[in-house]
Amino acid sequence: RGLAHRRRHLARGTGGRVTLSIDITTLLTTAALVLLWCGRDLLWRLPYMLAAAALGAILRRRYGAIVVIVGAVDEPAAERWSALVRACSRRGGPLTVLIHSDGGHTHARAIIARAIAQHPGPVTARVPIRAWSAGAALAYTADKIHMGDDAVLGPCDPHRGADDNRIWCALDIAARDRGDTTAGMLRSEHAVEECATAMRANWAARRRVLGRPQVMPGDDAAIAALILGTRNHWHPLFIHDIAALGFAVAVENDPHFAILARWSMAALPEDQR
Question: N or C: at which end does the chain have fewer Cβ atoms within 10 angstroms?
Answer without folding.
Answer: N
